[in-house]
Amino acid sequence: MSLVNLAFKTQDLFFSPTDWDDTTFRITYLRPIEALTRSIETIGLQHRPVLQEKGKGCFRIVAGYRRLRSLLKIGREPVSCKIIPAGTSERDLFLFNFYENIDRGFNTVEKSLFVKKLSAYIGEKELTREYLPLLGLPPKKEVFERYKSLSEISPIYLPALVQGRLFPETVETVIRNLRPIADFIFALLLSLHWGFQKQREFLVDLLEIFNRGGPDPEAFLFSASVMDILQRNNWTPQQKGEALRKFFRTCLYPSLTETEHLFKEMITPLKLDQRTRIYPPPFFEGGRYGLDIRFSCTKELKDSLEKISQALKKGKLDGLP
Q1: 15 neighbors 77 (Cβ within 8 angstroms)
Q2: Residue 75 falls within a domain, yes or no?
Q3: Is residue 239 predicted with pLDDT exceeding 90?
Q4: Domain containing 109: what range?
Q5: How far apart (Å, rounded) are the C-alpha atoms in residues 258 and 260?
């Protein structure tokens, strides 16, 4: 498809006829204008903004929102603009804006805005096949659905998507499975400073607890046990996160957790140094325990072996779980 034949005329405009509230074509999000303003002050405006006539002497912005904001900030008007007639289709103008900005790349929220807005003009299959790759995304249905779902979250969490503190996969899972408490979960994940993997594990475990017949996610997250962890003001986010993960593990694997506790109660009194470690079989299955001794001289080896030998003589390792 070619947009080179769009009809333009050049016109000097003052800011007053511009409808700043019309964001039909805008997909820019959370991009500061300070550097752009400095550039315009230094070398002037290099690319004219593009506006469309709306009738009655009013115009809406097709491309160049940040340029116009920068010019408004420094009080430079009138502005030489490209004007497109009122009858031009919104689809063509939206794509014009997209292609004008494609070389700069798009952040996560901008990709979501593009997918949502373009969905009003073309079908899912064409958008997925032709345009997701231009956004640096795989041309897959699940990716289309994921980025479309980002538009459903509260605007207060959008900066976290741009900053990489929330992730599209996280948002998709929450919106699909936990919509009634989505805002609480997003706020919780951000407060714990978790990266993608821990966010993913948290949601997998939460849904697994529910699927195993436990309380519904809302009742579980607002339970006294979880609230006690989250309300500990003297704990760091890392400490709260680790305590929460352990609690989830206890709920999912109560027998394994109890066995781990018994094992720890047997090993801790031995007071082994950091070089010496007795470790259980994975998930305490198979019955083969291990002994790991690290030493830099024979004395260290003898000391470690002596502690293990004494523990065996006194029966402190009898009955390992």
Answers
A1: yes
A2: yes
A3: yes
A4: 105-152
A5: 5
